[in-house]
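P.,

For your records, the input lines for the assembly:
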Amino acid sequence: MAKKGKADRQDKVARRATAENGPRIGVYVCHCGLNIDGSLDCEEVAKYASSLEGVVLAKDSMYTCSDAGQEQIKSDIREHNLNRVVVASCTPRLHEPTFRAACVEAGLNAYLFEMANIREHCSWVHLHDRQGATEKAKDLVKMSVARARLLQPQVETEVPITPRALVVGGGVAGIQAALDLADAGYKVYLVEKEASIGGRMAQIDKTFPTMDCSICILAPKMSEVGRHPNIELMTLSEVESVDGYIGNFHVRVKKKPRYVTDDCTYCGDCIKDCPQHMPNEFDCGLSTRRAIYSPFAQAVPATYLIDMDSCMNKHGIVACDRCYQACQHKCIDFSQQEEILDLDVGTIIVCTGSDVYDPTPLTELGYRRFPNVITSLEFERLINAGGPTGGNLIRPSDKTVPKSVGFLQCIGSRSKRSNPYCSNICCMNTIKDALLIREHWPDTKIYVFYMDIRAFGKGFEDLLMRARREGVVFIRGIPGEILQDDNSYSLKLIGENTLLSKLYEYEVDMVILSVGIEPRKDSAVVKRLLSLPSMADGFFMEAHPKLRPVDTPTGGIFLAGCAEGPKDIKDSVTQASAAASRANILMAKGKVTVEAITARIDPERCTGCGLCARVCPYGAILVDEETKVATVVEAACTGCGACCPECNFGAITMRHFEDHQILAQIDALAESDAGGKILAFCCNWCSYAGADFSGVSRIQYPAEVRIVRTMCSGRVDPKFVEYAFAKGIAAVLVSGCHIGDCHYINANSQTEKRVQRLWRKMARLGLNKERLRLAWISAAEGMRFSQEISALKEIVEKITPEEIEKGIEAFAPKRLPKGEHPDEATRPV
Amino acid sequence: MKFWRLPLDAEEQIIPVGRLFIIADRCKGCNFCIEFCPNKVLEASPDFNRKGYHPPVMKPNHECNNCGLCEVICPEFAIYSTVEEKRRFTEVDLVRYEEMSSGEGKGEQE
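Structure tokens returned:
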């Protein structure tokens, strides 16, 4: 309540200030060391800003985000009675919260602050065009000032956080995250798709660099999860749907039946009589299992289960009851049904893990053709005492111990033919495996064929040196081809030693392909359910690669383990504890304020047509059939703004992204040389972040583009585009998340429809359709963003003044609804 | 195909192979056995029996595993099976596994 009172007070201060003095704007242009000042003239930009309407003072400073810089803003607010603040510096995705907090401390409402992104979107992408960058920065500041003039104070709502967590995935990361949170006293739901928790770590024999037995250190943690009073373990379960928002997620989980009750004593009598045989997935198909089985000895929960896909009773008729007959405790129950569980949780940690690369497409290596070519995961099962051979390393072709083995590195990694990234763990895994062979069969000749050995972690180099000392031969250059001797099944490796520039031929008994890690095949499902962004390589993306490495852009959802990128066990555990701690912070606070960016409907103007309700991805708009008025459920509204363009009566206001605020930005950029400029609408989550990414990567593109940020591309009203053309702007880019990846479920499908409608209209009016471009750019596609802008620039160069003139006439302001023009629309304050 | 390698313990597996006995002339064509066979190894014969029905026959290249359901549900005592032989785990089982895990059962869930 105290907080709300404070916000109200701020509100009043701001309103009073605005009413009494009109906008009093302070502009701060940040040098950011040489990051900004190195490529454009900050002083000139600040001087220019001071000439803008409503600007009371404009300063440039070295580091505006520093304490001194923030203090300056605060004292200026008090001293000069500022009622709006504009900071021209880095991306709002980085420092908007910092500056907002400074404003709030000085008594200004957070929503009266505006940022101009002149670093990621300007200085970094126009490193060698000082003139162009300075002009662009001026424009960006002018647009921000124009928007700032019309900003309104907003009051944020506070929502409670449910003190329960959901952990998706029961690998080592999920286990650690669940245990940490459960120990902290929260109820944790751990959802695992497979029959047992443990994940990849349970399959591995030893861990590097300490050579600890993997299952020996994991099993105690697994059983702790099984018996922890705060953890509800759900195996054979998958998340079906996730609704809600930070602190208040409603999760639906589908739990498949085990067909074996909890009374199971794990005696194993049941499996002997099962007639259905199939390869055991846990052993990579190197052993068999029955339809009733347990994936491995240390499985948690320690009960058998029936794989109904392969059991004869899958059609609901008990054709075979041999397991039931064999079970002394009669704990087999064919009548079990699938359950749907509804959970309410406050935070979600995603630990869905990874798959291993399937080397079949690399045909020259002969995997699937030559029995003695195996993958590193198959090797782990072979050398594992709990594996199909009881820990005896044998050749699959004749079950003899190999006298010589070759490890091939970077299979499926660091190559244009497979995955371009380094899989992080394979080098050390191979060194560990080589030492294991050395330990058990000291006479084996071991060759490691590598590109580069990356031994970057604590204790890694020592292990590498030990392997060298113990006679493991490292050869730089991966074989170009493997041939098999059809009598002995031995393998001949042919390649080039790139250190000696000599061709080599080696004959070995067995080849181990050190395969890389890739995103899980079903990660697209998780991605869709939780609307998570992912990198170009398919791994989930963190909110900030350095400073928020376990957060996702969606509040309350965190990442850990290989779902975020290839990493070893130690890193997975570290990340899991970090994610648990982040979730703990939220839940310990018990409440969170959500941004006041939600839609409001003016009941006076609303006719209850229901068009807005139809496009709302969250069903947050309800139309009262009797009063014919639509209302927004504020807690459910996420602020995408897809509803606004739908309203024909101007009844919907999207708070903080109001029509006249966006139109004012367009006005500002069109004031001079509109015919040479590109207006880009970017959604906050994907394309704006993509543009940021191209800045961070210093990918250069033409300086003619000016970016207007909206929360979602669905907010982009066709009338904004028409208005831009009416103002003579040469080209417009509308960009958002890829279809299917929209941060707001599917709001960008509205964008697509609207742009297509605009194209049709432009064709009808005889305008060049190329002037309007639609692009889906993810947060990781910085290169894509720059390509889109370069393509538009080419189009802009070809556009004649006549064409521009034609556009101005076609979309002349008379077509705009009354009251929308920023010049006449000074909202009552 | 997910798994291509014969499991290392394939030799040690003993899989029962059933031999089906169909007394064709008793069949009245109810098709229970064809419909309910969990391994779907039966189909209606194109031939008629003495009563004018199409009795069941084994589909070519299919294998009974002697679960005995047909024997239980046949109203006319026209079908039964015995364990004729035992065999090892072979490539056929890999193919069957692939069909089962990618087939109807999993398909619905995904």
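Two observations worth noting. Helices of chain B lie at 32-36, 69-73, 91-102, 104-109. The first helix of chain B runs from residue 32 to 36.

Regards
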